[in-house]
Amino acid sequence: MVLFLIGLGLGDVRDVSVRALDVIRRAYKVYLESYTSILMQGTAAMVELYGRPVIEADRTFVEQGCEQMLTEAKEHEVCLLIVGDVFCATTHADIFVRAKQLGITVKTIHNAGIMTGVGCTGLELYRFGYTVTVPFFTDSWKPDSFYDRIAQNMRANMHTLVLLDIKVKEQSIENLMRGRQVFEPPRYMTVNRCLEQLLEVEETRKEGVLSADMMAVGVARVGTDTQHIAAGPLASLVDLDFGPPLHCVIIPSKSLSDMERAMLGLFPPRSYEPQPEVAAPAQAPAAPSQ
Question: 271 and 241 in contact (C-beta within 8 Å)?
C-alpha cells in the first residue's frame, strides 16, 4: 500500500500536523525513527496523543534495512515518524529510495526542521553554507573534517550550522566485542562541549579558522517554549548553561547585514533560567456573550 514518511516538527508532540495525525491514527503500524534526533517528551506522550502504539526504530533497525517495515508497507499503510523534517538526514532519503526500488508507494508529510528552525536567530537562511556535524571526541578518535567545511563557508561569506552529536542506544567497545546487548546511557552534546572541541581542533590545525574572540551562536531546544539563544564571542559562550538538550551551534559569517546584527543583539550571552510551569486551564474559557 503506502509508506508514509512523516515529519514531527522540532519541539512538541503536538507539532504534528492535522493531516499527519489522520494518517497515524488509521495506519496499520507506526514506527518512530529514534536515533538521528529525538523529541524529549518521549514516546509515551506520543502514544497518549495519537491513541496508537509507537514502535521505536533504533539505529540497528534503520541502518540494516527496515525489512519488516518495508514488507508491511507492501500490503498496508505504514508510518515512519521522523523528528524535524523528513529529509534533513540522508538516512531517510535512503529509506525512500529502497522503498521505491521495491515498488512501494511513498508519501511524505513535511514539518519544521532544524535547517529552517535556526532562522529564529535572525541569520538569513539563504546565507547558510554547508551544514556540519561535530561528533564526541575520544582519546583516540578526533575527526576534524568539519573544520575544512567551516573554513570553506567562511571564505564564501556564509554561515555554518553545526549539528551536535547524540548517542542513543550505543554499546561500549567491551559489550560490542562480547556481543552483549547492554547499552550506554544516552548522551547529548552541549554547546559547551562543541565549542571546546572546535577550539581544540584549531589548536591542532593552527589555520586561523576559529578563535576564542570570533562570533558564535548557541541555540537550544528550537521550537519549544524553553528555546534559548545566546550570541557573542565564542569564549563568552563556553561556560554558559544552555539547559537541557537538544543543542546546536552557528558560526556566522564575518560579514553580517544590519538586520542580522540587530537580531543577534537581542540574544546577549546569558545562561538559561528555567521558568516555572504554568498550569493549563481545566477547561477552555467560555466565549464572550454577544
Answer: yes
> CB of 51 within 8 A of CB of 1?
no
Q: Could you give the residue ranges of the DSSP H alpha helices within the chain?
A: 18-26, 42-50, 59-63, 67-73, 90-101, 114-117, 145-155, 173-178, 191-205, 234-237, 258-264
> Which residue ranges in the chain fall short of pLDDT 70?
63, 65, 169-179, 181-183, 277-290
CB atoms within 10 A of CB 35: 20
Query: CA 184 to CA 75: how far, in whole Å?
Result: 36
Domains of the chain (ranges; CATH) run 2-112 (3.40.1010.10), 115-264 (3.30.950.10)
Cα–Cα nearest to 168, from 189, 182, 187: 187
- Sheet with strand 105-109: strands edge to edge: 55-57, 29-33, 77-82, 2-7, 105-109
At 211-231, the pLDDT tens digits run 999 999 999 999 999 999 999
